[in-house]
Write a structure and sequence with these properties.
Strand content: 5-15%
Number of helices: 37
Keywords: Aminotransferase, Transferase
Organism: Halomonas aquatica
Number of strands: 25
InterPro entries: LL-DAP_aminotransferase (IPR050881), Orn/Lys/Arg_deCO2ase_major_dom (IPR000310), PyrdxlP-dep_Trfase (IPR015424), PyrdxlP-dep_Trfase_major (IPR015421)
Structural class: alpha/beta
GO molecular function, one term: transaminase activity
Low-confidence stretches: 1-15, 133-140
Radius of gyration: 30 Å
Strand order of the largest sheet: 6-15-14-13-11-7-8-20
Protein name: Aminotransferase class I/II-fold pyridoxal phosphate-dependent enzyme
Length: about 950
């Protein structure tokens, strides 16, 4: 059996971490293909090359499978034995059986015997594969016991590994709710790589003593092991090394249940910081207790309190003597005409339809039972202190948070290109709005995100004007529709250095999945909040802050560079961590439409927010919430905790596969250019200097560096493609080419781009279909050009030029008119959007002005401040270019004139823009 030397780079052979599961599957299939060719080959020289290729693939797979329970190490020794004895026919037979077991996932349901003497095994694998095809996916077999793998970290010999594995196998009982297998690793590094590459690992048992170094050169761990070395750990005690390993596993995959088996002073160990261990076992503890403790821990995450309660309710015979005739399906089971609803949906959805809040159910407005428990589990899963379910979308979730935290005339800093629900939330709350401009991407008719310097500069304006105490909240979108992601921790840290009690609302509508991937998680609001709280409590931070403060006090506080050109640090004695995040769970995780969540990490929630939050929640939440949505949120949380790591990893893999093909395919590159990091994030915001996460030679090895350091990064799961070279605008391409011709749905376009998003439901087959469609379209565009006459080619060239060169600059926010500014003529930019909004309700205060005939422009040339009386929202880009009370600028007018989209909310082409009359602006009534 070949050993991998330390001088080689086996992780290069093992592939890139981001595509490990695809590499695993593809290598097994390639091995099966090579063996089939070998046993049918008569050419000795070609056979020699194939044997060498099979050797390489087996070596690569052995590294991967070292971190998986199936095939086991014993199975792999059997494969090597057949290979070394040159029994290639038997080897092919065993590999075929193994590949079928991996594809059908039959190893999750029964023991798979890979011995060449098992005559029935092949038929069983074929039957499993057939059943999988019939079901669509093995996971749909809800009667099967869920399967997981237990990681054991211990420096065991091969015979000892078999003993331990067999011992745990013997603990299993048919009545167990779950079935599991055992993976053993022998070192600190191997434990970390196992939890990264094996999503089946759900529990970890750290036993006795183990070395630091792996026998493999695990370069993929470099970013996780920074500052650690074998030398730095050699003087650590067994307990210290185990606690450090536990902490790092928790950072990578916080959902994994961890247990410590110690041979030392168990009482002394228990008194240390062992917060990431569920329990400590002394070495003499028997396997039965360990088995039951592990099963109970898995069950604690697998529970779905409200979904279970709703299922139980649906089985109860009840008499309904209140609203909802459809409850229990009564109004349709008795119908001669509406029975097709049951045919389509099935009866269970109606049996579970009720407005009851008792009988084992609960009230969303004031939960005390299974909904309360389900929300607590969701808070655990997403790293929040409190979580609240919302059944009418994140638009409502955003309004709840704003109303709970913001009083009339509080100042809110908000990115101007945020979702429209925030703008309307500002109206409802009566906030004084200070809009922040994102950096523009004029070439693609889209915005990026708000630079930190812009935020700090605005906060400083309020500080110097003596109004910083009025600034209540910073509201930003993370990640944006186009995939631009903030460095959340850095934004919070530096803003808190200027205003220590600033509240942050992070709209993570498109980012709910991010908490279940170790690269994405640090850029989420809940993770940043917890990390900063722990950081500010530490002695090391206090020492760092004291040194920074001593240097900072030598600088000129009135010089902007003092604040803007260096990293700021908040006072640990003054800072309060107050972060809120809203998630459209239905957009990126499993939930029915409109299922959303509000996550809270606020040190002042109990003292200052709980009561107003409850009132805001009552204001916006229906008294008849949809229980199916609540149940789906409960199940979606459970799925995210149990297999979110695997699903998100697969989502990233499919996105990277799509990107690679678009980067490298000659015909696709000609018409469809994928925007990479440097296209969407200017160099000023890329400290790492990373231009693209992909390199044709080294693969996806730069993503972690950028995500760890840069002010902004791009989510690779959101593939924005510039299509200007086709001569077709984004809206036409979306509707006429993708949807109408091929049934491919996308959501977001700009004038010359389309956005493709992968999600946890995206399969490799779906990616293959999309690529096939894009290749067909590219060929169609080739034929169109080849077969066009000279005048037709000129038309195409003009369209391409218009879409690639004649793009109107994206306008910044102009200003609020003085009539809607709390301090007209002051140095701060906030405006009273509520006053402007309701002033427009009186018809005599407004009029329409057209700009397509020059009427509005003439008024502006005559010196009139033309002020919008409504929101004006073109689709795309899908955010307000004008809000009530905003002065119409020449740049905004030029942008509106250049738009070639048909959908502009708030604009009536036959009448024009709705604006305030000059008389209404001379003395607007107080709001």
């Amino acid at each position: 059996m070949p050993e991998t030397s330390q001088t080689e780079t086996p992780y290069t052979a093992l592939g890139f971490y981001h595509k490990i599961s695809q590499l695993r599957a593809d290598t097994w299939n390639a091995l099966k293909r090579d063996l089939g060719h070998l046993i049918r080959l008569n050419d000795a020289s070609r056979a020699k090359n194939l044997v060498k290729a099979i050797d390489v693939k087996l070596t690569r797979l052995e590294i991967i499978e070292d971190y998986h329970a199936f095939p086991s190490k014993e199975d792999f020794r059997h494969l090597w034995s057949l290979f070394n004895r040159e029994e290639y026919g038997l080897l092919e037979k065993v590999v075929k059986r193994l590949v079928r077991a991996l594809i059908s996932e039959s190893y999750r349901r029964r023991h798979v015997d890979l011995s060449e003497n098992d005559a029935d095994a092949e038929d069983l694998e074929t039957l499993d594969a057939l059943n999988q095809l019939r079901r669509g996916h093995p996971a749909s077999n809800s009667s099967a016991q869920p399967y997981f793998e237990l990681l054991i970290v211990d420096n065991l010999s091969a015979p000892e590994e078999e003993v331990v594995r067999e011992a745990f196998h013997n603990m299993r009982r048919p009545e167990d709710r779950f079935v599991y297998d055992v993976v053993t690793v022998r070192s600190f590094e191997d434990a970390l790589i196992a939890v990264l590459v094996n999503p089946n690992i759900q529990a970890c048992l750290i036993r006795y003593e183990f070395p630091y170094k792996s026998k493999y050169n695990l370069s993929a761990l470099r970013s996780y092991l920074e500052g650690l070395s074998e030398q730095s750990l050699e003087y650590q005690s067994e307990a210290e090394r185990s606690i450090l390993l536990s902490s790092m596993i928790h950072e990578l995959r916080p959902e994994i249940d961890q247990f410590l088996v110690t041979s030392g002073d168990v009482e002394a160990t228990a008194s240390r910081d062992i917060r990431h261990f569920n329990r400590i076992f002394y070495r003499e503890t028997d396997y039965i207790e360990q088995h039951h403790t592990i099963m109970r821990a898995i069950d604690n995450r697998y529970r779905t309190p409200f979904f279970d309660a709703l299922r139980e309710y649906s089985k109860k015979p009840t008499g309904v003597f209140h609203a909802m005739p459809i409850s229990r399906g009564k109004s349709i089971t008795r119908s001669h005409w509406a029975g097709q609803m049951i045919d389509f949906y099935g009866i269970n959805i109606f049996l579970a339809e009720t407005s009851a809040t008792s009988g084992g159910l609960d009230s969303l407005l004031q939960p005390y039972g299974p909904i309360k428990k389900a929300q607590e589990y969701a808070a655990r899963a997403f790293g929040a202190r409190q979580t609240f379910f919302v059944t009418n979308g994140t638009s409502t979730a955003n309004k709840i948070v704003v109303q709970a935290l913001v009083k009339p005339r509080d100042i809110v800093l908000i990115d101007r290109d945020c979702h429209k629900s925030h703008h309307y939330g500002m109206v409802l709350a009566g906030a004084h709005v200070s809009y922040l401009d994102s950096y523009p991407l004029d070439d693609y008719s889209m915005y990026g995100a708000v630079p930190l310097k812009e935020i700090k500069k605005t906060l400083l304006e309020y500080k110097r004007s003596g109004q910083l105490h009025k600034v209540k909240m910073l509201l930003l979108t993370n990640c944006t529709f186009d995939g631009v992601v903030y460095n959340v921790r850095r934004v919070m840290e530096e803003c808190l250095a200027i205003k220590p009690d600033l509240v942050f609302l992070w709209d993570e509508a498109w980012f709910a999945f991010a908490g279940f991937n170790p690269t994405y998680r640090p850029r989420t609001a809940m993770h940043a909040a917890r990390t900063l709280r722990d950081r500010y409590r530490s002695e090391s931070y206090r020492e760092e802050y004291d040194a920074w403060k001593a240097e900072f006090e030598t600088l000129d506080p009135d010089d902007d560079a003092t604040w803007l050109d260096r990293r700021l640090m908040p006072d640990p004695d003054a800072v309060r961590i107050r972060a809120y995040a809203t998630h459209s769970t239905h957009k990126t995780l499993t939930s029915l439409r409109q299922g959303s969540m509000i996550h809270v990490w606020d040190q002042d929630y109990r003292q200052k927010v709980e009561a107003p939050f409850h009132e805001a929640y009552m204001t916006h939440t229906s008294t008849s919430p949809n229980y199916q949505i609540i149940a789906s949120l409960d199940v979606g949380r459970m799925q995210a905790e149990m297999e979110g790591f695997e699903l998100v990893h697969a989502q990233v893999e499919t996105a990277l596969s799509l990107r690679e093909q678009l980067y490298t395919h000659p015909l696709l590159k000609k018409y469809f250019r994928v925007l990479v990091n440097k296209d969407m994030v200017p160099l000023d915001f890329r400290e790492s200097g990373v231009e693209t996460f992909y390199d044709p030679v080294t693969g996806w090895n730069k993503m972690e560096e950028a995500w760890a350091n840069d002010e902004f990064v791009v989510d690779p799961c959101r593939i924005t493609i510039a299509i200007g070279a086709t001569g077709i605008d984004g809206d036409t391409f979306k509707n006429e080419y993708l949807m109408n011709k091929y049934g491919i749905q996308i959501n977001k376009t700009s004038r010359n781009t389309v956005l493709f998003m992968t999600n946890i439901g995206t399969s490799r087959g779906a990616i293959a279909y999309l690529l096939d469609v894009l290749i067909k379209l590219a060929k169609e565009f080739e034929y169109r050009w080849e077969e066009s006459s000279r005048p037709e080619r000129k038309i195409i060239e003009n369209r391409v030029h218009s879409l690639t060169k004649e793009l109107p600059p994206l306008p910044d926010f102009s200003r609020f008119h003085d009539a809607f500014r709390p301090a007209p003529g002051g140095n701060t930019p906030e405006g009273d959007i509520r006053r402007a909004y309701f002033l427009s309700y009186d018809e005599e205060n407004t009029e329409y002005l057209r700009f397509d005939n020059g009427e509005l422009q003439a008024q502006m040339r005559n010196g009139r401040d033309v002020v919008s009386a409504s929101f004006v929202i073109p689709y795309p880009p899908g955010f307000p270019v004008l809000v009530p009370g905003q002065v119409v600028s020449e740049e905004i007018l030029y942008f509106l004139q250049a738009l070639d989209v048909t959908e502009i909310h708030g604009y009536r082409p036959e009448l024009g823009l709705l604006v305030f009359t000059e008389e209404a602006l001379s003395d607007p009534p107080l709001g």
